[in-house]
Amino acid sequence: MFRKLACSMLLLTSSAVALAQSLPSRPISLIVPNPPGGVVDTAARVIGQPLGQILKHTVVVDNRPGGSGNIAYQMVARSAPDGATLLVSYSAYHTANPALMTKLPWAPKDFTPVALLVAATNVIAVHPSLPVNNLRELIAYLKKNPGKVSYASQGNGSLSHIGTELFKQQTGTDMLHVPYKGSGQAISDVLSGQVQIFITTPPSVMQHVQSGKLKALAVAGKTHHPMMPTVPTTAEAGLPEFTLEAWVGLFAPAGTPPALVTQLSESVKQALETPEARKQAAAQGVEVRYLNPAALNSLVNTELDYWQNVIKKANIKLD
How far is CA 319 from the centre of its chain? Predict the structure, then answer.
């Protein structure tokens, strides 16, 4: 009996040591394909500190913007599959770039899903100079004035660009696209009225809606946004077919050992459940939403097909 107990304890100890040894010896870098600020950087910082505490390991956030995300994606795709270099992936890059670019320096198969981190609905925001007070009035106005209203995006191929093209497809409207290099430049011109419409995630427009500088006509999600509770969903506003969410997930290089992926995923889940992480996410207007590796893989495959069809119909190309 004693020998069996001793053997069992030895096996448990060996398993624990093996699990601990599976972590890299150097710090874990969360590679962010965007500059500081915004939904992707927010997601990385929401999990960074609690993940380090749970793993008892140094975790750093490393912003590598540029090239429509491709600089960061290529870097992680070529990294050693040892858990030291992880990609904080933006859905618009992960599922749209393969359809937008024929010479992409990475492919979805180069990454192993670890966990979904957060999701953010999109808000249909307009400048007060537009004579509309709800979504139905906006659609009617656009149909009466085809091509005379402009909309902003964070750049060609961004989710705000592709998402607004989807809005045009579903409503039979026409608007002029004005691309910018990020949300900062875009919101500046929207606030001044030079561009009238911006469909984007809450962090970019939330404070301006709350202050009355912009009008939010609808939230393109299934539920109200907690920081803008009086803004209706698109379904409530008369356009149930239009939903638009951005998500941020954590991915490892392909070939990362399954046991390490599982450990990282379960640790991320614990990190997202901490009060600090949930408070920080809520303050930035994003929703904590964990998915395990298999569920995240399914989400990626579904959206790759969906956005390929939207992009092809809108004839959007980046090369």
Answer: 23
* Separate counts of helices (H) and strands (E) for the chain: 11, 11
The DSSP annotation for 280-302 comes to: HHHHTT-EEEEE-HHHHHHHHHH
Q: Which two three-digit tokens encode residue 296? A: 């995240």
Beta-bridged to residue 188, according to DSSP, are none
Enter the CATH code of domain 25-120+246-314: 3.40.190.150
Q: Are 153 and 160 in contact (CB under 8 A)?
A: yes
Q: From CA 93, how far away is CA 91, in angstroms rounded?
A: 5
Pairing mode, if any, of strands 59-63 and 245-253?
Answer: unpaired
Provide the pLDDT for residue 20: 47
Q: What is the largest CA-CA distance in the chain?
A: 85
- Taking residue 178's Cβ as centre, other Cβ atoms within 10 Å add up to 18
Rounded to an integer, what distance in angstroms lies between the CA atom of residue 274 and that of residue 291?
Answer: 16
* Predicted confidence (pLDDT) per residue in 96-105, tens digit: 999 999 899 9
Whether the model clears a pTM of 0.90, i.e. scores above it, the answer is no
Q: Which residues contact 131 (CB under 8 A, 6 or more apart)?
A: 137, 141
Where exactly are the structural domains of the chain?
A: 25-120+246-314, 123-219
Topology of the domain covering 123-219: D-Maltodextrin-Binding Protein; domain 2 (3.40.190)
| Residue found under tokens 């901490």 | 274
